Amino acid sequence: MNFFRRKTYTAGPPEYLIVGLGNPGKKYELTRHNAGFLCLDLLAMKNDVKIDRLKFNALIGEVSLDGKRCLLVKPQTFMNNSGEAVRDIAKFYKIPPENIIVIFDDISLDCGKLRIRRKGTDGGHNGIKSIIYHMQSDKFPRIKLGIGAKAHPEQPLADWVLSVMKKDDLAQLREASDKACDAVPLMINGDIDKAMNLFNS
Question: Which residue numbers are catalytic?
Answer without folding.
Answer: 33
